[in-house]
Write a structure and sequence with these properties.
The chain has one domain: P-loop containing nucleotide triphosphate hydrolases (Rossmann fold, 3-Layer(aba) Sandwich), CATH 3.40.50.300. Helix content is 55%, strand content 13%. The chain contains ten helices and five strands.
């Protein structure tokens, strides 16, 4: 089995690349989705977050008020406190997911889509993954994409989130494959098909 980490900054288009890889035959999981599941009531991560940040972050229905939590994390500069709770559990869940697939499909390609693959202080991605793929695009284009999908957000919101991530240049030094996403959808698909061929080759014993 080949373990693949797929990353990219805010608005880079990594989710689009992940969807294309899934269509081609990869097993794909989103770190954000795993994290969201772990942050539901009844989960240990949920209890830890409430204990750390207080009950004010709860919505009327008893779930986490994600808007409040996001403001505390990003606007108030406490994102690492949140990450320290969520990231270890999320990484453990990803590892368990990949192990389960490997037991059934020895030549599978498992892709974990994660915005904070390099930024997380909890687990070196070079130990967790066999290949790392970076999706990148010019910053202004990434900001436009973010604003288009997040009504009510501002350019300052986008820049604050980008500032909390490593630069694309730094990520490039640590990645095995790079996909530039500032052209057409067909341009992007062409690159992903080429990437898929390389990943399949690496996943199959010689």
């Amino acid at each position: 089995m080949l373990r693949v980490g797929l990353t990219g900054g805010l608005g880079s288009g990594k989710s689009t690349v992940a969807a294309m890889l899934r269509d081609l035959g990869a097993h794909v999981v989103q770190a954000d989705e795993v994290g969201r599941q772990l942050m539901q009531p009844g989960q240990a991560v949920f209890d830890q977050i409430v204990a750390h940040f207080g009950s004010d972050i709860l919505a009327a229905d008893g779930t986490l008020d994600r808007a409040k939590l996001s403001k505390i994390a990003f606007a108030d500069g406490r994102v690492e406190e949140l990450n320290t709770i969520v990231h270890p559990a999320t990484i453990a869940a990803q590892a368990a997911w990949m192990a389960e697939i490997a037991a059934k499909e020895p030549n599978a390609v498992c892709v974990v889509e994660s915005a904070l693959l390099f930024e997380s202080k909890h687990g070196d991605p070079r130990n967790r993954f066999d290949r790392i793929v970076l999706v990148y695009a010019p910053e202004e284009l990434r900001i436009q994409r973010f604003l288009a999908r997040q009504p009510g957000s501002t350019v300052e919101d986008a820049r604050r989130r980008i500032a909390a991530q490593l630069s694309d240049f730094e990520k490039m030094q640590r990645s095995h494959f790079m996909i530039r996403n500032d052209g057409t959808l067909e341009d992007l698909r062409r690159q992903v098909v080429q990437l898929w061929a390389e990943l399949q080759k690496a996943a199959t014993p010689q």
